[in-house]
Fold this protein.
Amino acid sequence: MHTSSINNGYFEPVHSAHSIEQVVLVLHFDRPIDQQYLSDALVCAAQFKTLLPGVAPVLGGGIAIAFGGQSIPMQMPPAGVVMSRSAPDGTIENELRIEQASITFKSTRYTRWSDIWGQAEKYYAALIGHYLDSGATLVSISINFVDKFVWNGSAKDFSPNLLLSKDSEFVAKHIFSLEDLWHIHTGAFIKSDAQTKRLMNINIDCLDEMVGLNSRRSISITTVLTDMFNQNGFEPLSLAQDSGEVMNFISAHMGALHAFDKEILGKTLVESMAKQIALIN
């Protein structure tokens, strides 16, 4: 079922079963871990080489040392590692970034939330102990979804009202009368609970993009949600430096952020598209 009851065009999600082009999950810590703990984490990550065979260093900053009147750049030790798996066309399917103050998992091969979180949780559970042992504490958990919808029709018939709800609090009403490309950005801090300050960022972009030799028009909805802890005006977070307890906490927040993302998307789209991608029954 398409989002249009007319023959001039309609929107389709970028994939047949869902609209998710990319998902990114991030853990941030309150300080960079030192080189020994980072090295231990990277040794631990070697167990994932079969799943993520591509390996590249995250280069640290450089310093310049004066020597004989010349400034000689000196490279610092690597600040982390990026492990990845790529498709035959070179597209990165899954990526794990292990850095001194963060661990990031990105995927462009979304299937179901349980599958994506299952992958990320495995990597986080193996690595997080090295951060906690260094004395670093978790300061934020972030989730980033990019949902894309492709216009099937001519540019002159492009109708954002066939995708975006005119009643949505996240959609600027003036875009429904525009004939050219546009962008919407909205953001807010939300008190999720007594310990959690949640930052919500929503970007909606109307884009013309090249696919091979052809141009297509699309609407991309990027939602970035970040739960932050130990913020002014909020109750302090008391988590033991125990990897099991911290992972349970992370899992609960990731699940809540995913549910909130679905709620936002459901309020942004017209009902027919929300049903098409199974946001609502």
